[in-house]
Specification:
The chain has 389 residues and is an alpha+beta fold. It has 4 helices and 19 strands. InterPro entries: MdtA-like_b-barrel, MdtA-like_BSH, MdtA-like_C, MdtA-like_HH, RND_pump_MFP.
């Protein structure tokens, strides 16, 4: 039994060797061309410098250009509300009528006091004039003349005080009709007829807001402000001051506001808690599309970059640590893996600030088929520009 098994093993090994030799011979007999790696058509774009306009997208909220919290300047009972809530009103338009009866009485009393002081003034003036003649004739003493002159001057002061009281009473009477200090849209009234109000109370009777123009407050960091000034001073880009009056606005629903605005001012102080400052814009709003408190995004022109290098976004790859890389066709069509610095994405193209030169060829299509330091044997240039967003 043992001899038979050995014989079987020898036969099996010989058969395996024969089969292997047949397979190897068959592989050697194939056409060498079939053993070459397939060649893929690689698409590239030649980077050309161009001038582009950079814009900053900043979030913000709309603010009424004017807002007035209307409060009474005299106390009394509200007799009537003279406006419709939510309506547009003019500057000086009456809003409330406070009971004027007590103020009319005060005015009459002040006018009566004025007449009395004027009568006293006439008497004092005549006496002073008469004593002035008599003192020259030594018919009265100098002391009597001085006393008469003093009384006359006191009467003049009383008349002036009474005239001021009359004017003040007239002002208080006018204040019984509460008017709007600005033009705009009036809000919800906090009081009704019959309510008791006091002068300069804490709670406003109603709020009036002006919607045209509408202000937009943006918040930017102090770091962004410093970087912007450094770039502008270094000549990284240039800016025309006229662009500051050509600002676009995107509304909450993503639609573009059909009117352009301008920059009014930037806050002179930096918020110590957040390290940010406020930038205020102004937009015309004749159709009242913008309302206070709306969340918007403003597109502000930063400046024009001269000789900017843009590459399609799909040509850019990133390392696990986030570094940006490009595959560039270098000398002798050898692929180079280049680390670059990106700044911003513009119309589906990355702005490259470091690591790339004008005229270089950047691989856009077929990146998965190339390897660094490997040759590119088949390629074509892509000239189509990406569509604008």
């Amino acid at each position: 039994m043992l001899k038979k098994n050995n014989k079987f093993n020898v036969i099996t090994r010989s058969h395996i060797l024969i089969l292997l030799s047949i397979v190897l011979t068959g592989c050697d007999s194939k056409d060498p061309a079939t053993q070459q790696q397939p060649q893929y058509d690689i698409g590239y774009t030649t980077i050309e410098p161009q001038n582009i306009e950079l814009k900053d997208e900043m979030p913000g909220r709309t603010v009424a250009s004017y807002q007035s919290e209307v409060r009474p300047q005299v106390g009394g009972i509200i007799l009537e509300q003279l406006f419709s809530e939510g309506s547009l009103i003019k500057k000086g338009q009456p809003l409330y009528q406070i009971d004027p009866a007590p103020f009319k009485l005060n005015l009459k009393s002040a006018e009566s006091d004025l007449r009395k002081t004027k009568a006293n003034l006439t008497t004092a003036r005549n006496k002073a004039n008469r004593y002035a003649r008599l003192v020259k004739e030594q018919a009265v003493s100098r002391q009597d003349y001085d006393d008469a002159t003093s009384v006359y001057q006191q009467a003049q002061s009383d008349v002036a005080s009474a005239e001021a009281a009359v004017a003040n009473s007239k002002i208080d009477l006018n204040y019984t009709r509460v008017t709007s200090p600005i033009a705009g849209r009036v809000g919800r009234s906090t009081v009704t007829a019959g309510a008791l109000v006091t002068a300069n109370q804490t709670d406003p009777l109603v709020t009036v807001q002006t919607y045209d123009p509408m202000y937009v407050d943006l918040t930017a960091s102090s770091g962004e402000l410093l970087q912007f000034r450094r770039d502008l001073a270094s000549g990284a880009y240039s800016r025309n001051e006229g662009e500051l009056s050509d600002i676009t606005l995107t509304l909450e629903d993503g639609s573009l506001y059909d009117r352009k605005g301008k920059i009014l001012f930037s806050d002179i102080n930096i918020n110590q808690t957040t390290g940010s400052f406020v930038l205020r814009l102004s937009f015309p709003n004749p159709d009242r599309i913008l309302l206070p408190g709306m969340f918007i995004r403003a597109s502000l022109p930063r400046g024009i970059v001269h000789g900017a290098l843009l590459v399609p976004a799909k040509a850019l790859t990133r390392t696990p640590k986030g570094a940006a890389q490009l595959h560039v066709i270098g000398d002798k069509d050898i692929v180079e893996l280049r680390t670059v610095t990106t700044e911003t994405l513009i119309n589906n193209q990355w702005l490259i600030t470091k690591g790339l030169q004008a005229g270089e060829k950047v691989i856009v299509e077929g990146i998965q088929f190339v390897r660094p330091k490997s040759p590119v044997t088949k390629s074509h240039e892509i000239t189509d520009t990406p569509p604008e967003e």
